[in-house]
Specification:
By secondary structure, the protein is an alpha+beta fold. It has 6 helices and 10 strands, in the order E-H-E-H-H-E-E-E-E-H-H-E-E-E-E-H. The longest helix has 17 residues.
Length: 217
């Protein structure tokens, strides 16, 4: 469900108005989460570690309302009760990638097997950006995008900016996990509109991702 926000009664009115005319109103934060137990569980179950952390990220976003505000093409601030995730997936047989849309499901097993089915049915050829280019209406906004670079550990990153008002939705990158002091640590970068999201919300995001990496499945 979508709600059009009345900025005059919105609790973030002053925050948004302060940043809305900035040349770049967005910020990118990179931090690490511990993923030791999630990696071990996925390996023992012969399941995808990528889908383990994708679930944790998407669940965290769907529990933090500030990560679900959007700015549409008309300048309206809109809010979604839930959002899905876009993911560029590498197709090893061709060396290309294709972006797929994976719907949010709170039950981990439902999410996992739905995502596996979508990924297993990626075409061998076609437009790698079709999932984004063909989206219309609310489907252009009620999403986040998560890209993975599992062979590259990073400590910072910059993101492309779609328009002067920022991206239509949060952009995230997940890097290679490395062992530090006996723990497996994984970098996650997130790019958000500062008129919607403050440091306290980003802190909650990373805390929740780490929590769900420990708990699920």
């Amino acid at each position: 469900m979508k709600e059009i926000i009345d900025i005059n009664t919105w609790e973030r009115k002053n925050n948004f108005n302060f940043f809305k005319n900035f040349i770049n109103p967005c910020i990118t934060i990179t931090s690490e989460v511990e993923c030791t137990s999630a990696k071990d569980r996925s390996k023992k179950a012969n399941q995808s570690f990528f889908l383990y952390y994708l679930y944790a990220i998407l669940r965290a976003v769907n529990e933090i309302k500030e990560l679900r505000f959007r700015l549409d093409d008309s300048g309206n601030i809109i809010y979604f009760n839930t959002v899905d995730v876009l993911c560029p997936i590498h197709v090893r047989t061709t060396g290309k990638f294709f972006t797929v849309r994976i719907p949010w499901k709170e039950d981990f097993n439902e999410f996992y097997f739905s995502a596996r089915k979508i990924i297993e049915n990626i075409p061998e050829d076609g437009d790698p950006y079709a999932a984004e280019d063909n989206a219309s209406g609310d489907d252009r906004f009620n999403i986040i995008l998560v890209s993975a670079t599992p062979d590259l550990h990073f400590t910072s990153i910059t993101h492309t900016q779609e328009r002067s008002s920022g991206s239509s939705y949060p952009l995230l990158n997940v890097g290679k996990a490395i062992i530090r002091e006996g723990k497996l640590m994984m970098p996650i970068a997130i790019y958000v509109h500062h008129g919607f999201v403050d440091g306290i919300h980003l802190t909650a995001f990373y805390s929740k991702v780490e929590k769900y990496l420990r708990l699920y499945p």
